[in-house]
Predict the 3D structure of the following.
Amino acid sequence: MKTTTTVIRGLAIDVLIIETVHADAVGTLFYRAEVLIRERKSGAQRLVRRTRIPGTAKELAQAVQQRGVRALETFSPAA
């Protein structure tokens, strides 16, 4: 299993994207990505999105880098 953490730093918050991938010789068996918002002052983390579609987290990271926090407004809180 391989876990990759991407941190996008902002002024008041950080966006964390944690991707976990498990693959064998044939291909990808398992993919999971979580998008968290971490407040700088308190360090509290809030789960914004959880997905199992490969590549979604990378697209979101690019959108946050381009549009900032506005890219997260389209997501509803995760259940």
